[in-house]
Amino acid sequence: MSNIQQTLSIIKPDAVERNLDSEIKEIFINKGFKIVKEKKIQLTKSEAEQFYKVHETKPFYNDLCSYLSSGPILVMILEKENAVLANREVMGATNPKDANEGTIRKKFGISIDKNSVHGSDSIDNATIEINFFFKD
Ligand code: CDP
Ligand code: MG
């Protein structure tokens, strides 16, 4: 049975700054994802705080929100069979040091905070995050 899903992907400031967006998009396309929508934007600090609200009690919250709003990001809706999990697999572990060979974070991540990509972690959060950026 087919289980086509959509998930939200963000190419974070460290990767956009290094002009890695086309290379990262190509990885998704080669893995069979369809890029349904995309836009390059820069968030304000308060928009980043809203986006990462689930992490508001974490010690890294403030730095994380400053970082996400520090430069342009590329936001995409990715579509594929089991897209949520498939995207997490292509991204690799949160800390690039722990990420598997061949993953985006292993290849491009600089550190746990500058780890090049964001991906929704569940179907429910994918819907919430897609609506956050692409409500029309
Ligand atoms: O992005 P992912 O879902 O893999 O990780 P998360 O646990 O949801 O954390 C969100 C983001 O916070 C990560 O991607 C990191 O950039 C950042 N983070 C951090 O700076 N320091 C940590 N100890 C954990 C996460
Ligand atoms: Mg997460």
Detailed description of the structure:
This protein is of the alpha+beta class. It has a single domain (4-43, 72-134), classed as 2-Layer Sandwich (Alpha-Beta Plaits), CATH 3.30.70. It has seven helices and four strands; from the N terminus they run βααβααβααβα. The chain has helices at residues 13-17, 21-30, 45-51, 61-68, 83-91, 104-108, 123-133, and strands at 4-11, 34-41, 73-81, 117-119. Helix 3 (45-51) packs across helix 4 (61-68). It is globular, with a radius of gyration of 14 Å. It starts with a strand and ends with a helix. The mean pLDDT is 98.
Observed structural traits:
136 residues, alpha+beta, Alpha-Beta Plaits, four-stranded antiparallel beta sheet, binds cytidine-5'-diphosphate, binds magnesium ion
Please sum up the structure shown.
With 136 residues, this protein is of the alpha+beta class. The chain is 40% helix and 21% strand.
Blueprint (SSEs and pairs):
Elements: E1 4-11, H1 13-17, H2 21-30, E2 34-41, H3 45-51, H4 61-68, E3 73-81, H5 83-91, H6 104-108, E4 117-119, H7 123-133
Antiparallel strand pairs: 1-3, 1-4, 2-3
Helix pairs in contact: 3-4
Q: Which cofactors or ions or other ligands sit in this model?
A: cytidine-5'-diphosphate, magnesium ion
| Poorly predicted segments | none
CATH architecture: 2-Layer Sandwich
What structural category arises from helix and sheet content?
alpha+beta
Number of domains: 1
Specify the number of helices: 7
